[in-house]
Amino acid sequence: MKMRRQVEPPVAEGELRPEDVEDAVANEVTSLVTAKAPKGVVVTDSASSSCCDSSSATSGLRVLCDQFGSRLLLLLFATQHVMKGFTSSFIAPAVPYMYKSYNVPAPRQQIFSGVTQLPWAMKPIIGLISDAVPICGYHKAPYMVAATFLGVGAVATIGLVGHDTLSVTNFVICIFLLQLQMSTCDLLVEAKYAERMRSKPAYGPALMTFVWFGLNAGGLVATAFAGPVLARFGNRSVFLISVPLLASVLMPLMRNYLEETPRSAEELSATWKQLSEQKEACYLCLLMFAGTCVLTVLGIVWESVWLNAVAAITVAIIMLVSFSVVLRPVIAKVNAFFLIQTSVGFSISGAAFYFYTDDDKMFKDGPHFSKEFFVSVIGIVSAICSLVGVYTYQQYASDWTYRKLLFWTNIVASVLSMSDVIFFKRWNKVVGIPDEFFVLGSSVCLAVVAQWMWMPGVVILSQLCPPGMEATMYALLAGCHNLGNTISSNCGAWVLSLLKCEPSGAIDEGHQFDNLWVASCLSTVMPALTLLLLPLLIPDAKQTDSLLDEGDRDAMSGSLLRRWRGY
């Protein structure tokens, strides 16, 4: 599910990545991915005539307004299109440039990046707390408002406080709070529109199209503007511009566009009873939260790359064992495969960023990519090619088996990723290929393959969520994968440290990149080795096949824990 390519411009945790598809919307995403209709959208009965007969976007929006109400669409516009689609993509490229302004060494930068990803792994506990502990009877809006104030305050602080006053540690905390706002709002809004889609399933794909079209459009526009804004107005300018955009979420929340009503004591009691019936899932939520807290504190307080890597590996082992013992075998095996593959895909993005962006005084033989090219040009090309990847996947590969698709996409991705080695060794210059053309050419191919790797992961996780537990299980499985990204980042930082590849934006640091190609080889080869586990952990089924029996609501049935207990 994870691409190992390091050439793409850095993206924020929680941007348009595989792990963005969360929680109870899983079933609706599956219907879109596996649809056989030419346009990839399946509607039935009256929805078919309403949606298919509409030739304009205005007509489509009118249908959605009639079915779901304008309040929900405005809420989705603010949280999904503006906040998650545009603002996250707008802020993301500025973050590594800010680290560079602090002269943060590449391994340490990756530890910080891992820390700021962790709010996305906290989604399970956020969902659990919002369900179990309403504020004034409300389960969603108060938590979203509180998280928004934290995120807006954090981004305003970055934009307004001077470089000498705001330490790098405080900067990391601010980015962490920003990601906490995005993950909290994303989770609770997804739960809301998943609830609405269940009441009108015929219009579910149309609503998902509205959400994901806005996400991609917002991200594409943000990418186009981010590079020029960074180059002309400085790194902090994007944070100041983002303040009102992040705050715009408050308007629909204050007007109760969530359409929440205070929960009664009886309803709260029923919620507690339902949670008590899912003790194992609650245990996994708490365990994942504990692991993320440990990694957060260690990453911010302790500078030791070795200590953070060991802690990450320890957390990975604990999660792997716990999930494998508690969950039913088919779910546990799939989760184990993706967690292992994500964790061993050692990220070297910190060092790669310096390699691409160091100027002539820092790295004489480097490509010296400008902010406009590195952020906007590569970003736009990759985004467009990703859409091509989605289309070609749906046309040609949606009926492949999971094993076949995961095997071949990983093999192709590994071969293509070896182009990093060529680039880091500067062999492309030897044969006369300009840096810009080489990078764009390889990015086109990798962006397409990335989507082919992502889609089966989305579908299989969706298929493994028993009815009635979609939100909990998908949050846990996706959260575990997100945690794997932090583990990958921390372990990659250790690899960079061992290879003495620790650039920090200092003058004449070209020697720091001597062994970067070795780190790139490791980050490419290690995930490919996990393909040996495919026959053991991934079911040999088509993506359209059901992996759980119809009506099976128990995600722990047949687990090792229950077998040990004798039931």
Question: Please, could you describe this protein's structure?
Answer:
The protein is 69% helix and 0% strand. It contains 26 helices and no strands. It has helices at 26-33, 45-52, 57-68, 70-91, 94-101, 106-117, 123-132, 141-160, 168-199, 204-233, 237-247, 250-254, 265-276, 279-301, 305-326, 329-344, 349-357, 371-396, 402-417, 419-424, 427-430, 435-463, 470-498, 516-529, 534-537, 560-565. Helix 4 packs antiparallel against helix 11 (237-247), helix 6 (106-117) runs parallel beside helix 9 (168-199) and helix 15 (305-326) packs antiparallel against helix 16 (329-344).
The profile of the biggest β sheet is: none
> How many strands?
0
SS content category: mainly alpha
Helix content: 55-70%
- Give the SSE string: HHHHHHHHHHHHHHHHHHHHHHHHHH
Distance between the termini: 34 Å
Report the sheet-strand fraction: under 5%
**Computed CA radius of gyration, to the nearest angstrom:** 23 Å
How many individual helices? 26
Instruction: Report the average pLDDT across residues.
Output: 85
Uncertain stretches of 5 or more adjacent residues? 1-5, 7-54
What's the overall geometry?
globular
